[in-house]
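Quick start: what a row looks like.
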Amino acid sequence: MRCPYCSHTETQVAETRESDEGDVVRRRRKCTSCDKRFTTYERAEIALPAIVKRSGARVEFMPEKLRGSMQLALRKRQVSIEQVDAAMERIQEKLLASGLREVPSTRLGELVMRELKRLDKVAYVRFASVYRSFEDVDEFSRLIKEI
């Protein structure tokens, strides 16, 4: 760690503390050249994969967009915010566990449909009808019979 005062590259850790939640480490450092002290913070950087759209465009994964899509499908359904949060966590965990840097939007859509099917069948049908862009009524009927 470079000293912010004199730019010397050698510093010593004088004190280390974890935050109450355990997700941040605070370190007090001392420069070996100028003897000044400063604080640094360490936190884990979690990089979710980019989403590759059908057009080939790559976009950053946006949890708020995922939440909005799920809430739209779940509109006026008896599903709690906690259940939606848990479903979103499971989706994000699967994306992280894949180890991929890029995930096709079709894969993300399938993960969302799987979670919605667990939460609420009506929301699942709503989401699937938009996501799969059914060409005719027969395709839609097959989806409903599947449930």
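That is the whole record. The chain has five helices and six strands. The chain has a mean pLDDT of 89.
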